[in-house]
Design a protein that fits this description.
Blueprint lengths: L3 E3 L6 E2 L8 H33 L4 H17 L2 H9 L7 H35 L10 H24 L1 E5 L6 E5 L11 H38 L6 H35 L7 H19 L1 H9 L4 H11 L12 H29 L1
Antiparallel strand pairs: 1-2, 3-4
Organism: Zoarces viviparus (Viviparous eelpout)
Keywords: Cell membrane, Disulfide bond, G-protein coupled receptor, Glycoprotein, Membrane, Receptor, Transducer, Transmembrane, Transmembrane helix
GO molecular function: angiotensin type I receptor activity; angiotensin type II receptor activity; C-C chemokine binding; C-C chemokine receptor activity
């Protein structure tokens, strides 16, 4: 619902009408939003509670995972408003401030999620491939400072998207939209170049560049572990388990966000030709709510991938649900124990490989 062309005191005109308005969207999408809201709130709240109460913030991985869960929670609180917005046929009854704030939190979550995933990937790369040299950098203080930078940088990147959003009264209709402002006489600051910059920033900084960094880190981790297996065959099963967890995290983010990024790019490229081809706009506006549902589902996947894969996490979760005292703690948290052990085995194997090569050269 973003094809706004002209501004007027009695409302705005849409070049292609209310494209993408279908009863099955108004029924199905709010139900999906409701399920994502319940699952995401419960899952991420458990992650926060378990890490804070039992695992504590003693490792870099736990700090990043905790902040990732908090990021998802800040976004999930906006889902009931978006569900009502869709269920009422794209009518926004909450006013201009909440329209801007909700849009900001959506983009804010996109940036914080991918940045925390990237930071976690870089940390895993340093811990496994360069465990000794990176020890001075991989501290709790470093992780906390990194989180502060990510929160502030993501907020700055999200502000332009909030500025470009507002409520719109539709001509000859009682519908009030919460959509993107387009260039008009009343909005001289909102230019086509400004909107294009926001879209490109969302695609590049919010997906493509971080994803390339993540893939690069995991490829280097995989290469290091494959080389280490020739020295320590016994650690193969545990290494495979860690690799599967890392691959699942990357794959989940990719599958959840790629459809929305593709249709977002299509929407950006077809904006200049909307008046000539409303059929394309109809396809994009019909598919966009479902791609958004898939993207939002990533907020439910994160707790499963980063928390519930560990046996110790499940044990601590059961202790939390049973209201067990905080006296006896599991000695090694799920994420940190596996990663630390893997880092030690990988570094030991890599050093043995280097020594064997050196001895062969001497001979």
């Amino acid at each position: 619902m973003q094809n706004v062309t002209t501004g007027a005191t009695d409302g705005i005109a849409l070049t292609c009408g209310m494209s993408g308005s279908h009863e099955f969207i108004f029924t199905l999408v709010p139900i999906v939003y409701g399920c994502i809201f319940v699952i995401g709130i419960v899952g991420n709240s458990m992650v926060v509670a378990v890490i804070y109460c039992y695992m504590k913030l003693k490792t870099v991985a736990h700090i990043f995972v905790l902040n990732l869960a908090v990021s998802d929670l800040t976004f999930l609180i906006t889902l009931p408003m978006w569900a009502i917005f869709t269920a009422t046929g794209y009518h926004w009854p909450f006013g201009g401030f909440l329209c801007k704030a909700s849009a900001l939190l959506v983009i804010f979550n996109l940036y914080t999620s991918i940045f925390f995933l990237t930071a976690l990937s870089i940390d895993r790369y340093l811990a496994i491939v360069h465990p000794m040299r990176s020890r001075r950098l991989r501290t709790v203080l470093y992780a906390r400072n990194t989180c502060v930078v990510i929160w502030l940088f993501s907020f700055v990147l999200s502000v332009p998207s909030a500025m470009s959003r507002d409520v719109h009264n539709i001509k000859n209709s009682t519908t009030v939209l919460c959509g993107t402002l387009h260039p008009t006489i009343e909005n001289p600051i909102i230019t086509k170049e400004f909107l294009l910059a926001i879209s490109l920033m969302k695609s590049l900084l919010g997906f493509l560049v971080p994803f390339v960094i993540i893939i690069t880190c995991y490829c280097l981790i995989g290469r290091a572990l494959v080389g280490a297996r020739h020295i320590q065959k016994s650690s193969r099963s545990r290494d495979d388990e860690v690799l599967r967890m890392l691959a699942a995290a990357v794959l989940a983010f990719f599958l959840c966000w790629v459809p929305h990024q593709v249709f977002h790019l299509m929407d950006m490229l077809t904006q200049p030709s909307l008046e000539k081809n409303c059929a394309i706009k109809e396809i994009i506006d019909t598919a966009m709510p479902f791609t958004i549902c898939i993207a939002y589902f990533n907020s439910c996947v994160n707790p499963l991938v980063y928390g519930f894969v560990g046996n110790n996490f499940r044990k601590n979760l059961l202790r939390l649900l049973r209201c067990s005292p905080d006296g006896v703690r599991v000695s090694h948290p799920s994420i940190s124990s596996r990663m630390s052990a893997l880092s030690f085995r990988a570094s030991e194997a890599l050093s043995l490989t280097a020594k064997s090569k050196a001895s062969s050269d001497v001979k």
